């Protein structure tokens, strides 16, 4: 007779295999191999409450190997998070709650969208950093109101991806003792044995990073798995790395241990053989014995007791520490950033020419006082990107209360960690690097947009204005790349008011990430710049004619060329409108009436000026207009010389308008 624990493990396997088989698509190998480890963790060690998935002090669980999503869906179904058998049967179908990879905000209980391998590892590091910071801010003696673990499960693919090494190197440096990694070590990847491309000693690598190392020799031994998890929880000075030796596709006689178990349905005959081999009482798809459901219900109720105890603790905490309780509410208030709207100091215009990166740095140091839960930093570039918050301390192993994050030269994991901090809740994060290195950031910024979380990306040194560093450091196509991304706002401001607008839009956003693209060189301030920049584009200087002779559009540093070209054209009797367009994305979201007001269709003589790729401007200049942009990479020379050589001069703008 198979005991109830073993039946419960097998329920995960059967449901996962049935879901993949019915969809005729998916990855059964990981769920079959990791079912025991996942069950032991969720059933006996992880604090979570199926009746309150958003409980703030719950342990976090991230499935970094997101291709094994049916493992997570089966857990959520069995523990009573709201997924039904019908949902499992709709795996990978249109509109279902069980898509091919776990998607945040789409399925209750999913903590992060995990598609690209390794991304979940890095986001889990961000969650652990958030827990450590919030604990340092709020916990008092006898009142550990922030006290939970972050668990992440991934396999060989996650460990091969460089992002996991970046993130774990930082996690070890920071001594994130509440981070526990479960490594599904089955030595199989899509192409076969990992020996063909991955023979390093992973444990030695993790030891070098500063992790506690634990090994489970038999990935089906619940007792051994449980002991390893408890040992990991006991060492709070180091993150822990548990190697769980599993067999991919466990239980399926024809597929167990083979690469073919990874990414294709087992086949109807093999599913039947799996059920027979595991001693499953029925061949009916998605069948689970009632005693197994009852057992899971009992387990869920037992895990929920942790929240009951925490609620009592938190009530007492609020009575004894009312100021901290009020601060807690502010940390968790998504509308808190809107206080900046009426803050005169925030919107105060600069009085002299200044680089937008410097103006942004001043904005950050204003916002930090309005938003005490703002935390962030740069990939070893804070002095250049101006992203350091004065007097806020540095987040480190010795000071988790610090609000300045030092990511080291790790742009990819930096972006993922920023996502993880946001996903944890209670904090607003920003990350920063040079704009040209946003190529390293892009995959995780894409996840920000997919998940609908308001991540903030500060990109400086935004054009050929970088100058002497040459083409490797001068962005060209990056702006078009980010503009092309759905649910993503890009601001390239021209002065202090537009920079303030960009920051306001970023911190006030609820579901859309924002990139601020900022100059290295000084720019002038404009008397007519205004909060209308929040509409993405607006009339900076207008023609006195009811219908302008032409429209010049520009962003960032090139707005100065547009304004000066207008003055020159007026001398020759041409009265043009200057439109500053700090954000195409936001402008596209405005009503058609506003778009027509700014860019009247009757005016077909249009010139756009931007010292980056001209891709994307065609929709605004039309067939009769002209774009002055970059069609090549940059060069190494002083910035002024580069602007001249590449045609970004007042004379060239005037000539372009007259040529239409």
UniProtKB/TrEMBL annotation:
UniProt binding sites for substrate: 27, 262, 357, 384, 461, 469, 473, 520
Binding locations of thiamine diphosphate: 67, 115-117, 157, 186, 262, 437
Keyword Metal-binding: yes
Any Pfam family the entry gives: Transketolase_C_1
Amino-acid positions noted as binding Mg(2+) in the UniProt annotation, renumbered to this chain: 156, 186, 188
Gene3D superfamilies associated with the record: 3.40.50.920, 3.40.50.970
Active site: 411
Keywords: Calcium, Magnesium, Metal-binding, Thiamine pyrophosphate, Transferase
Cofactor: how and how many bound: Binds 1 Mg(2+) ion per subunit. Can also utilize other divalent metal cations, such as Ca(2+), Mn(2+) and Co(2+).
Annotated EC: 2.2.1.1
Cofactor requirements of the protein: Mg(2+); Ca(2+); Mn(2+); Co(2+)
Residue ranges constituting the Transketolase-like pyrimidine-binding domain according to the UniProt record: 354-525
GO biological process terms, semicolon-separated: pentose-phosphate shunt
Site location (Important for catalytic activity): 27, 262
InterPro entries, A to Z: THDP-binding, Transketo_C/PFOR_II, Transketolase-like_C_2, Transketolase-like_Pyr-bd, Transketolase_bac-like, Transketolase_BS, Transketolase_CS, Transketolase_fam
GO cellular component, one term: cytosol
Gene Ontology MF terms: metal ion binding; transketolase activity
Catalysed reaction, written as an equation: D-sedoheptulose 7-phosphate + D-glyceraldehyde 3-phosphate = aldehydo-D-ribose 5-phosphate + D-xylulose 5-phosphate
Enzyme's top EC category: transferase
Function: Catalyzes the transfer of a two-carbon ketol group from a ketose donor to an aldose acceptor, via a covalent intermediate with the cofactor thiamine pyrophosphate.
Subunit-structure text: Homodimer.
Family to which this protein belongs: Belongs to the transketolase family.
Descriptive protein name: Transketolase
UniProt organism field: Cuneatibacter caecimuris
